[in-house]
Amino acid sequence: MAGRFIISKDERGAFRFALVANNGQTLAVGEGFPTKVACVNGIETVRRNAPEAHIDDQSGQEPR
């Protein structure tokens, strides 16, 4: 299993998603969406784009 997306509502009533790994670690959190449909669309956008996403390291530091 490759993890899961969890949808929740925040204190302002916006829908948010979190991508959570099998070990329970949160890997990414989406912005607040006004509707659940918009939140699910955000998840689908991540699913479509993440497999081909490259790392754009603007930190100026070498990985250690």
Task: Explain this structure.
The chain has 64 residues and is α+β, with helices and mostly antiparallel strands. The protein has one domain: 2-Layer Sandwich (Double Stranded RNA Binding Domain), CATH 3.30.160.160. The chain contains 1 helix and 3 strands, in the order βββα. Strands 1-2-3 form a 3-stranded antiparallel β-sheet, with helices on one face. The longest helix has 14 residues, at 36-49. The mean pLDDT is 92.
Q: Assign the CATH superfamily.
A: YegP-like
Supply the number of helical segments. 1
CATH class: Alpha Beta
Our measurement of the CA-to-CA distance between the termini, rounded to an integer number of angstroms, reads 28 Å
Name the average pLDDT. 92
What attributes does this structure have?
Double Stranded RNA Binding Domain, 3-stranded antiparallel sheet, 3 strands
Short summary:
22% of the residues lie in helices and 25% in strands. It has 64 residues and is of the alpha+beta class. The protein has a single domain, classed as YegP-like (Double Stranded RNA Binding Domain), CATH 3.30.160.160.
SSE layout and pairing:
Layout: E1 4-9, E2 15-20, E3 26-29, H1 36-49
Antiparallel strand pairs: 1-2, 2-3
Domain DUF1508: 10-57
InterPro entries: DUF1508, UPF0339_domain, YegP-like_sf
Protein name: DUF1508 domain-containing protein
